[in-house]
Amino acid sequence: MSSKLLASLKLAQLKHAAFLTGLPSAGTKADIIAVLESNIPTRTPIATGSRIVSVDMGIRNLAYCVLDVPKAPLPHANPPKPSPLKVLEWKRIDLLHPSAIESQKPPTSSDTQVKPSTKKPAPISPSAFTPSHLSHTALSLSRTLLSHSPTTILIERQRFRSGGGPAIQEWTVRVNMLEAMLWACLATLRETSSLERKGAGARAGPGQGEFPAVFEVLPARVAGFWVGEPGVSLRLTAETFISGRVEPAASASAPSGRKRVQKKDKVAVVRSWLDENKGKGKGNGNGNGNGNGNGNSHPDISLAFSGEAAKVAKAFAAPNGRSSSSRGTIEEGSVEEESEERMGKRDDLADCLLQGVAWTRWEENRDLLAQLLRS
């Protein structure tokens, strides 16, 4: 990578590049150059046929999706028509009562309204949150994620505090403990699988036994990427660096005025993708999505849902049964929900999908940036 070329760019251009590649965009010019130099050259480009498992952490409300990354469009295509990201799985599970959510079926099209669930969950023993029990939960979760044969696993990075408050909530401690155990389980399974392959003399190729790469993802960075300033393109282009032009507010990693991204904003992003599909008259769960809930349009984002994921997508896009709800708070996160639908909490499902799609875009932008800096 050309350090001279990076040094020739303006601070706003460097911030723009860091923002579009999912890297920290705060700091001085030297700070951002160091971040780009340490991440872009050493990264492994996203491979054709790769599979991503994106996890939104939780205990009672853990959500994950499985995405198959399509083949990159041909460079001579004018304009290039991207293939859709294939969403193979999109679900939310209760790790303490896995069957309670996994057995739920999304509402059918015959339902005119989505009624809130009044059934109380079964009581949970306090011992379920002890290290001895959570360790088994983490191991089971690890095996579930690996059963999808991913090449990449994305794990939402948990915070210790919410809203800048001084107190650390009990649920936060529990989820953080599970997050740490999940990482430990995956690291152990990676090591043991490597030893087994080495002992057997096996030489696995891509997607044929190699352990997936595991990355942590900051939720604030994902939210700032999708719910940002109107008119900001989320695809890196060579013209930005050649002409010295920086798109309006592209250097920001969060909406203007330091507005806090709310759950409903992220749900609106996913809903806009699904609504775009509905607007094109496709009722089979396959289609394109654009928009980011703030008036931005991203017509090159394309999603194709299959199987149960298509049913979840249809239920996700269905209108709420009521406009608002304040029937108490959810234990995990202690945040009042906009509504409680039969299909469950939409924000968890939205978070894991936004995280997975953002990662694919960051990887594409990193590939292009690396090519530009090497040329």
From TrEMBL:
<feature type="compositionally biased region" description="Polar residues">
    <location>
        <begin position="101"/>
        <end position="116"/>
    </location>
</feature>
<feature type="region of interest" description="Disordered">
    <location>
        <begin position="273"/>
        <end position="302"/>
    </location>
</feature>
<feature type="region of interest" description="Disordered">
    <location>
        <begin position="316"/>
        <end position="347"/>
    </location>
</feature>
<dbReference type="GO" id="GO:0070336">
    <property type="term" value="F:flap-structured DNA binding"/>
</dbReference>
<dbReference type="GO" id="GO:0000402">
    <property type="term" value="F:crossed form four-way junction DNA binding"/>
</dbReference>
<dbReference type="InterPro" id="IPR015242">
    <property type="entry name" value="Ydc2_cat"/>
</dbReference>
<feature type="region of interest" description="Disordered">
    <location>
        <begin position="101"/>
        <end position="130"/>
    </location>
</feature>
<dbReference type="InterPro" id="IPR036397">
    <property type="entry name" value="RNaseH_sf"/>
</dbReference>
<dbReference type="InterPro" id="IPR012337">
    <property type="entry name" value="RNaseH-like_sf"/>
</dbReference>
<feature type="domain" description="Mitochondrial resolvase Ydc2 catalytic">
    <location>
        <begin position="52"/>
        <end position="367"/>
    </location>
</feature>
<feature type="compositionally biased region" description="Gly residues">
    <location>
        <begin position="282"/>
        <end position="294"/>
    </location>
</feature>
<protein>
    <recommendedName>
        <fullName>Mitochondrial resolvase Ydc2 catalytic domain-containing protein</fullName>
    </recommendedName>
</protein>
<dbReference type="GO" id="GO:0005739">
    <property type="term" value="C:mitochondrion"/>
</dbReference>
<dbReference type="Pfam" id="PF09159">
    <property type="entry name" value="Ydc2-catalyt"/>
</dbReference>
<dbReference type="GO" id="GO:0004520">
    <property type="term" value="F:DNA endonuclease activity"/>
</dbReference>
<dbReference type="InterPro" id="IPR039197">
    <property type="entry name" value="Mrs1/Cce1"/>
</dbReference>
<dbReference type="GO" id="GO:0000403">
    <property type="term" value="F:Y-form DNA binding"/>
</dbReference>
